[in-house]
Amino acid sequence: MNASARRIAVVGAGWAGLAAAVRATQRGAAVTLFEMAGQSGGRARSVPGSALTGPGELDNGQHILIGAYTRTLALMRTVSAPVEEGLWRQPLTLRYPDGRGLAVAPGPALWGLLRAVAGCRGWTWGDRAALLATCTRWALAGFRCAPALSVHQLCRKLPPPVRELLIDPLCVAALNTPADEASAAVFLRVLRDALFSGPGSADLLLPRQPLGALLPAPAAAWLQAQGATLHMGRRVQSLARVGQAWHVDGVSFNAVVLAASAAETARLVDGLGLEDPAAAAWVGQARALRYEPIITVLLHWPGLRLPAAMTALVDGQQAPAQFAFDHGALGATAGRFAFVVSGAQRWVEAGLQATGEAVLQQALACFARLVPPEAAAPRVVSVLAEKRATFRCTPLLQRPPGHIAPGLWAAGDYVAGPYPATLEGAVRAGEAAAKALTR
After folding, report:
1. Is 0.90 topped by the overall pTM?
2. 342 vs 256, 311, 339, 345, 436, CA distance in Å?
């Protein structure tokens, strides 16, 4: 390591912090990474199995990438992560248990979507024409709209089947915010990048290995091989400005990337005592963010095989989940299924046991006909709740910027940017911080 290299501390080893650490190291910096947890990965990490779930690692929730996540995929390749082996790729498909829904053909996403809409099951020709006309208007407007609009307001003239089978599930999957409260501007930006980022941009990339193997473990190994210092299981207690340097728990650095959660970053920034209105405003914006939970219910159901690796579900008062994932179809444990409940505040309040039971009944109603009569009954093996999974992506939301003070940047999926709380947003924020601090 060059003794004269710029010394940068990265606080937090989630996907944003790992991106910042890797890119800063590539740009010649001497990086020290701090992580309060015992493992890296943040809110997209692997956790040990249990007596119920069996040996091996589980993910803390079911995550989805798409082909348009160009920076995330590039970062994975930089650290020699198993991209092709670890991610199962398929064109965007939203199929329901009763056969309704659409499947986008391979190739350019826009033309694939047009063909999928034309052949969508469960829609009338009037439904299809209304969606195509609306998409055309969005495209002509550059996929932009008034910032105060919600997704529900944006799509209010679309027929109910289109909203129920396409708009609502896409919105809650991408923004983790119900359509009547979600930002239409951010929703349109996600659609634009998925449809116009080249062939495969709308493809679903489903993890077929534990998340830890897809980025956190390879990135940590890569950083150590490059001479970076990693402190795992260490929560940073203090941050101070001393002249032109930054002290992290008393150790001097030229610059700092705060890649922890918004709340943890606000704690450190608030403790600086900076007479800086911009820094004070940053803390206020970070603490004003509101969050939506995600619940993942794991079922064990021997003998069941879903029609597709990912199946869309219609949620309702007694049906929590919007998607079901067949781990056996992804090359993992056969008979294990992940049911995902996004925008799950109501179900968190109902309790995890009640949520698991409701998902079990929803699964029976949707899939019992696919199982041989002699097959064992399904059972809940785990209910995982990430109570602050993502910020609520609402219209006119003021997200804190990446820059906090000279030599001090924040990185995370919550900082100001074009994307909702996604892995791609986190990676881009981390890379932006690294670039700004290594110029």
Report:
1. yes
2. 33, 15, 10, 9, 34
